[in-house]
Amino acid sequence: MTVLVFGKTGQVATELARVGGGDVLCLGRDEADLSDPEACAAVIRGTDATAVINAAAYTAVDKAEDAEALATVVNGETPGAMARAAAEKGLPFLHVSTDYVFDGTGDVPWRETDKVAPLNAYGRSKLRGEQEIAAAGGAYAILRTAWVFSAHGNNFVKTMLRLSAERDSLRVVEDQVGCPTPARAIADALWRMAGAMREGQPGGVYHFGGQPAVSWCGFAQAIFERAGRDVALAGIPTAEFPTPAKRPANSRLDCTALEADFGIKAPDWRAGLDEVLRELGEVA
Ligand SMILES: NC(=O)C1=CN([C@@H]2O[C@H](COP(=O)(O)OP(=O)(O)OC[C@H]3O[C@@H](n4cnc5c(N)ncnc54)[C@H](OP(=O)(O)O)[C@@H]3O)[C@@H](O)[C@H]2O)C=CC1
Ligand SMILES: Cc1cn([C@H]2C[C@H](O)[C@@H](COP(=O)(O)OP(=O)(O)O[C@H]3O[C@@H](C)C(=O)[C@@H](O)[C@H]3O)O2)c(=O)[nH]c1=O
Ligand SMILES: [Mg+2]
């Protein structure tokens, strides 16, 4: 099967290219700019692919606070236009969304049916995308994932490795708990879902996050331990690390539905972390 992927340089798109090999066509910004909904819809209308995956997004969470209009087009309106174009052609449309659609209350893992209430502009823009896609009328899957990391692009793992080389001590929030997820595992899941949906399996909204849940500080600690970095790490409350965008305290994702419906199990982020550290040359 040929799968059309929006995104080329991003973490998930890069891994999709690896998983799909010659069977995926990844489009960069020069070929499909998500700030132009109609142009992206036109690309889908002209494709002979058998499924479409959108792995591109405005992902700069803090910057989005001052660029909500652009984030809303890229993460909201354009995915909607893409989904409508895919629906017209009868192509399954797969899309990636985020734990940041939730407000982070409580400590129970979020289920797909739980109430969404984003705390920040990025989360609102991603929710808009979910709503537009669901209303488009075609076969779709929305995979809500979280805390994505890989050997390429920007992510928390690479930030921590960089900062630990520059500083003797680091302070990292320990009252935000969630599911670090290897981009490779997301790409594998999307690939299997695309195949199943092409065969007629219904989609829907699904959660997919690495287990076990951990705080950002706990994640940082695991990164330093596994990479053999010697840095003094202090856990701090969110109030001591002010950022433009508010982030949810509870980002735990309940991933049982995806396993029940597609047989896809949530990954263990620790194994994924070891793989990424190997790829980065941090460990043998
Ligand atoms: N990163 C994370 O922690 C999480 C991500 N997600 C979601 O997963 C998906 C993939 O994220 P991830 O792989 O981490 O993304 P990255 O941040 O690694 O990359 C974003 C990608 O989107 C592209 N992009 C941004 N704006 C545009 C535009 N206007 N036109 C065309 N392309 C554009 C970028 O291209 P360019 O290089 O040209 O800028 C880049 O390829 C997204 O939907 C994201 O919302 C969900 C949960 C967590
Ligand atoms: C660099 C740094 C960050 N932090 C905190 C800030 C924040 O609460 C947390 C993570 O910071 P980041 O900026 O990497 O995280 P952030 O960009 O918010 O990551 C999010 O990205 C979007 C795209 C998503 O969809 C989410 O699932 C999530 O992965 O760590 C510290 O406490 N100390 C530090 O030194
Ligand atoms: Mg970030």
Distance between the termini: 36 Å
Structural class: alpha/beta
- How many beta-strand elements? 12
CATH architecture of the domain at 3-154 and 181-209 and 253-260: 3-Layer(aba) Sandwich
- Shape descriptor reads globular
Strand fraction: 15-25%
Counted by DSSP, the helix tally is 9
Q: What is the helical fraction, as a range of percent? A: 25-40%
CATH third-level topology of the domain at 3-154 and 181-209 and 253-260: Rossmann fold
State the low-pLDDT regions, or none.
Answer: none
CATH class of the domain at 3-154 and 181-209 and 253-260: Alpha Beta
> Biggest β-sheet, characterized?
6 strands, parallel
Radius of gyration based on Cα positions: 18 Å
| Overall residue-averaged pLDDT value | 97
CATH superfamily of the domain at 3-154 and 181-209 and 253-260: NAD(P)-binding Rossmann-like Domain
* Helix-strand topology string: EHEHEHEHEEHEEEHEEHEHH
For the structure shown, list the relevant keywords.
284 residues, alpha/beta, Rossmann fold, 6-stranded parallel β-sheet, two-stranded parallel ribbon, 12 strands, binds NADPH dihydro-nicotinamide-adenine-dinucleotide phosphate, binds dtdp-4-keto-L-rhamnose, binds magnesium ion, NAD(P)-bd_dom_sf, oxidoreductase
